[in-house]
Amino acid sequence: MGNSALLSAAYHGDGLRQPAQSAQRYRSRASAPAPASPPAAATSHVALVRLLLARGADPDARGGRPLVFASSRGSPLTVAALAGAGADVHVQDDEPVRAAAERGHAEVLRLLLLRFGAHASALEESALQGAARGGHLPCVRLLLEAGANAAAEGGRRALVAAARAGWVDVVAELVAAGADPADPEFVACAARSATLRRMLGMPPPNCLLNSV
């Protein structure tokens, strides 16, 4: 039961949870109007996470899902509580890192990488690819600083993903970090964007086609 409650609390993360006496309960009383504002005694889910952990809930319950949930929801306090209690940040090939990166949760990503030792380059830089696809420049920078390799195959895929989505600043960051701007798939994607063509000094698309 404690592990199930932990999973639910981690999913809701750092947000607020109202006490058991809800607005619906107030409305059910004809003589008592609903309160104008939420009760001051509202408690946060992260407090519940800490309580459950202190009472023996497993931080790696359900295959590490609490940490994955908290990372994907962008809940740094919950992530810190779980990882500090021993949750495995490398679960499922560093899935918490990938979950945070692809959703742009830079604060969570910083915690996982710099405080708790998660890997930036798990599964061939798949976290870098996810961050690049979403245009999350702070996450891209964090991953590169923590050791993700822009010149590797995962970095190539990240560059293509950023170009396909039109994220000019992410493309510039990856190229500066060693991604190959001459990669044919990247060139084909970049050619569709006038901004990328100007930035990279590429000729117009008809010139590219004539040169093939």
Give the overall silhouette. Answer: elongated
Overall number of strands: 2
Mean pLDDT: 83
Biggest beta-sheet profile:
2 strands, antiparallel
Number of helical regions: 14
Which structural class fits the helix and strand makeup?
Answer: mainly alpha
Sheet with most strands: strand arrangement: 1-2
Along the chain, the helix and strand elements come as: HEHEHHHHHHHHHHHH
Whole-Å distance between the termini?
A: 63 Å
Helix content: 55-70%
Gyration radius from CA atoms, angstroms: 22 Å
Classify the beta-strand content into a percent band.
under 5%
Topology:
Elements lengths: L1 H11 L3 E2 L5 H5 L15 E2 H10 L6 H13 L2 H9 L6 H12 L3 H10 L6 H12 L3 H9 L7 H13 L2 H9 L7 H7 L3 H7 L4 H7 L1
Antiparallel strand pairs: 1-2
Give an overview in words.
The protein is mainly α. Helix content is 63%, strand content 2%. It is built from 14 helices and two strands. A two-stranded antiparallel ribbon has the order 1-2. Residues 17-43 have low confidence and may be disordered.
